[in-house]
Amino acid sequence: MFIAEGNQSSGATLTLLGFSEYANLQVPLFLVFLTIYTVTVLGNLGMIMIIRVNPKLHTPMYYFLSHLSFVDFCYSTTVTPKLLENLVVEDRTISFTGCIMQFSFACLFVVAETFMLAVMAYDRFVAVCNPLLYTVVMSPKLCASLVAGPYTWAIVCSLTLTYFPLELSFCGSDILNNFFCDLSIIISVSCSNPYTFQVLSFVIAIFDEVSSLGIILTTYILIFVTILRLPSAGGRQKAFSTCASHLTAISIFHGTVLFLYCVPNSKNSWLIVKVGSVFYTVIIPMLNPLIYSLRNKDVKESVRKLMNHPTQFC
Question: What SS3 class is residue 14?
Answer without folding.
Answer: strand
